[in-house]
Amino acid sequence: MFGRFKKSKNQESSLSQQQLSNALAQVSLPHWPTPVPPEWITVDGQHAQLTVPFAADNSILEPLKQHPELGQLSWSLQRNIAKLPNSQPELPLTFGNIIVVSSGKGGVGKSSVSVQLALALHQLGANVGILDADVYGPSLPTMLGGQEQKLEINAQQKMIPHQRHGIWVSSLGYLTDTKDAAIWRGPMASAALQQLFRDTKWPRLDYLIVDMPPGTGDIQLTFAQKLPITGAVIVTTPQTVALADAEKGITMFRKVGVPITGLIENMSYYQCSQCGHRDAIFGSDGGASVAQREQVPLLGQWPLDARIRAGLDEGKPLVAEQPEHELSVMMKNSAYQLAVELYRQAQTRQPATR
Ligand SMILES: Nc1ncnc2c1ncn2[C@@H]1O[C@H](COP(=O)(O)OP(=O)(O)OP(=O)(O)O)[C@@H](O)[C@H]1O
């Protein structure tokens, strides 16, 4: 049965409910493992609507439009992004689904991936915030721009996040000089992080991306234990030295009951922006093999590409400036897979609420 099947007064649907039902059973959406759940479909005369509980763009409608019978209907997309259970059942998900982005090793591109995933989720129709928890070197103000603008504090002593390229951003880098933040250690850094998390006045969000400090030490552990986290994304390069640390990160999150939503292999290969030639300078498929060994979904293999770096250095990330660029489309595909996996994994744990 469909969620809603209405015969509009003026327009008869060309398909019967049975025909629609049979046709839907033959179609699968990208990265969604089973046929389209009927409750996601509403049919009104010749118009059909797909409502998904995760971030997605219109490209998700293609399999429905390509189907010989379903393609006779005119399709539109609606998102009703689900608020999913988290690692701390006693703490409410006040700020939306929280996705921590972590790397066992520094310099593998964790902040770059966090920024581009956040922007890509926004382009997939979600309301997104990003928290720079990298107290050792907050880089979000550089990557998203607006360093010169300090965060405002309201009468309730809450920080008002900046809005950059359509997403909400809070970072210590907007409060202090980056060099001051770098001397914070241990409990002081942990406390500062938790305060930044709690005392930012986030608007209603679908996803809050948290760019974690690199490593798997006490600060990361405390943070992972204290936050209501929906899922973790592990970032690694294919290099052997990074892989061992990526596995340590997976183990740390599993120990504290945080589900691993997926892994992104960054700097998978060098891609020349002039001739397109590819070179696997850090080795091939190391991240992919960790993902397979640990049974974690591989959400993408992103190239080392000067166009990615240049945009981040100027505070104008490629995915925001050129959303149709092939690299941006690749990053949006990873963000879509992330949103789907987050929802799918939560369904297998306990039912979602909206
Ligand atoms: N895929 C990529 N292509 C080109 N440059 C990249 C890519 N990923 C990251 N970089 C660049 O590499 C540098 C380090 O990236 P980033 O700051 O994201 O790493 P990090 O893992 O967050 O580092 P840290 O451990 O210091 O927090 C940045 O200058 C960034 O622009």
TrEMBL record:
Describe its assembly.
Homodimer.
Pfam family example for this protein? ParA
Indicate yes or no for the key word Iron-sulfur: yes
The protein's matches in CDD domains, at most eight in alphabetical order, are given as: Mrp_NBP35 (cd02037)
This protein's name: Iron-sulfur cluster carrier protein
Listed under GO biological process in this entry are: iron-sulfur cluster assembly
This molecule's function is given as:
Binds and transfers iron-sulfur (Fe-S) clusters to target apoproteins. Can hydrolyze ATP.
